[in-house]
Design a protein that fits this description.
- By secondary structure, the protein is an alpha/beta fold.
- 27% of the residues lie in helices and 24% in strands.
- It has 13 helices and 21 strands.
- The strands form three sheets. Strands 1, 10, 11, 14, 15, 16, 17, 18, 19, 20 and 21 form an eleven-stranded mixed sheet that branches. Strands 8-7-6-5-4-3-2-9 form an eight-stranded parallel sheet. Strands 12-13 form a two-stranded antiparallel sheet.
- α9 (173-184) packs parallel to α10 (207-222).
- The protein is elongated and about 80 Å long.
- The protein starts with 19 loop residues before the first helix and ends with a strand.
- The structure holds pyridoxal-5'-phosphate.
Amino acid sequence: MTREKVRATPQPPATVEATAATRLAPPGDLATATGNINAWAEVDCDALADNVRAIRSTLTPVVDIIAVIKANAYGHGVIPVARVLEREGVERFGVASVSEARDLRAAGISVPIVVLDHVFPSDAELTIANDIECTVHSRALADAFSVAATALGRDAIVHIKVDTGLHRFGNSPADAVDLANYARSLPGVRVQGLWTHLANADEVDDAFTTEQLNRFRSVREQLDWVPYCHIANSAGTLRRPELHFNGVRPGLAIYGICPPNCPDPGLRPALSLKARLARVQRLEPGEGLSYGLTWRAARPSIVGLVPVGYGDGWRRALGNTGSVLVNGQRCPMVGRVCMDQFLVDLTDLPGSPVEGDEVVLLGSQGNERIDANEIAELTGTISWEVVAALLPRIPRIYHRGGIVEDLD
Ligand SMILES: *Cc1c(COP(=O)(O)O)cnc(C)c1O
């Protein structure tokens, strides 16, 4: 069977551009700015700043903070977050890739940046020209940096990563010593940093951290001319002062989430995820809802539609399992999570919820709170993934004390 396609009459171009900025009211107070959006993330810039201070309070004054802002600043929106952290005096940024570093420079971020993962020889010119420090893992890469640095008439600042047992990126202890000495001999190459990454820092038993530290120390003794050593992720920073060296590399803690098994220096989650009820409906007993009709009303029920789904990074595994906050009370998620929405059972809420009421998916409302660790446990993952999974479709609104500062 064939069907003629119905052709739409050409329309004149729309005059209103639906950018994040125009979807939102002009900056003002948070309530006004979010009055007419379906779902959004609020990032509390004061919390980010306080978290930097809380981490700082665990360090001696000579230790730098290398704030890890890879993966869109763990879902918090990298450019606005970098601006806040830059103002807070963070000494360096750590990112995973050259493209992440380049985006920060393009946005005018001037703090030193180190790329922690793989780079190609063809990245040498761009990274040197943009003052981006890279981790060098081979002689071929060191050669490329030397050639590009000489051509540009400036130094390439590089770090060497020792693989002390995570067996992810880096060089074995013996190769790291050899590579560092080779890179040092090349014109235009300045070996600034020596670092490693921990495998078990947040486990109940973190004994392997001691083994990694010992392997790192033996490399460091042979490379005592390298000025800047850094090892500790958030857990290493909070749990083991002997790992602080010249700089620490917290990621998760910057965003106010304390890793498991670590003393909490007073971190506050910076991100809240919120939405507005898109529909409130009554269901008769026996009626089902969402794909597969996996939940059925056992009584006359009131259900609310929440316009967030796995297409925003809100996991499908939360279907029939998670809960949200409405009117300061926990309400269970019912039925399957769809790409753009899911349903909640509002039957037991006192009062009458209506379309437009605020729903909290992550964060607090009244005396109740849902945090990333709770969502992680329900979905069989870790808090890192819960926040990093939040996709750009969700507008980010940056505020201080409820006054909007920035949008993303
Ligand atoms: C992601 C990452 C960090 C930060 O880890 P957290 O556990 O989030 O603090 C530090 N160093 C490296 C190499 C990383 O990849």
